[in-house]
Amino acid sequence: MTKVSYYTAEGLKKLRDELDQLKSIERPKASQAIAEARDKGDLSENAEYDAAKEAQGMLEMRIAKLEDIHSNARLIDETQLDVSKVLVLSNVKIKNQTNGMEMKYTLVAESEADLKTGKISVTSPIGRGLLGKKVGEVAEITVPNGVLKFEILEVSRD
């Protein structure tokens, strides 16, 4: 069974760009490397040929995987999302009730998560715990080392 993945317009564009790069640039390079290795003589003892064929196989697997992901990708319609509660694409300002530290995150699809830029996945423990909460509510999130309590300070969209 294939898994439907939800993407923002930016995330879907990145996926398409990577797929185009692999098909139009990397695939011809792999074919060229195989042709050059084949020209060097006996294929039974040609390690360069074997390596080029293996690299091509890995490339084709990656292309097939990305095509599968792309065929099951759905674009998130931001205009249909409720801005009063935490959903995918929400910017959320939370306060850790244990230490008083405030953090701001954007909840995104799993494929677009990047903690360095403040984007956390809706499938992560914190993301799942915040989903559906409104300003003023407290989210109790079970993590491997206990339970964290976060107060929702602000919910917004860009």
Specify Rg, calculated over alpha carbons.
22 Å
Strand-pairing-aware structural class: alpha/beta
Low-confidence stretches: none
**Which series of helices and strands comes N to C?**
EHHEEEEHEE
Whole-number average pLDDT?
85
Assembly classification = single chain
Record field, number of beta strands: 7
Major β-sheet strand ordering: 5-4-3-7-6
Question: What kind of sheet is the major sheet?
Answer: 5 strands, mixed
Cα-to-Cα separation, first versus last residue: 34 Å
Q: How much beta, percentage-wise?
A: 15-25%
Helical fraction equals: 25-40%
Characterize the overall form. Answer: elongated
Topology:
Blueprint: E1 5-7, H1 9-38, H2 47-71, E2 73-75, E3 91-96, E4 102-108, E5 119-121, H3 125-130, E6 138-143, E7 146-156
Structure report:
- Helix 1 (9-38) runs antiparallel to helix 2.
- The protein has helices at 9-38, 47-71, 125-130; strands spanning 5-7, 73-75, 91-96, 102-108, 119-121, 138-143, 146-156.
- It has 158 residues and is an alpha/beta fold.
- It starts with a strand and ends with a strand.
- The strands form two sheets. It has a five-stranded mixed β-sheet.
- It contains three helices and seven strands; from the N terminus they run E-H-H-E-E-E-E-H-E-E.
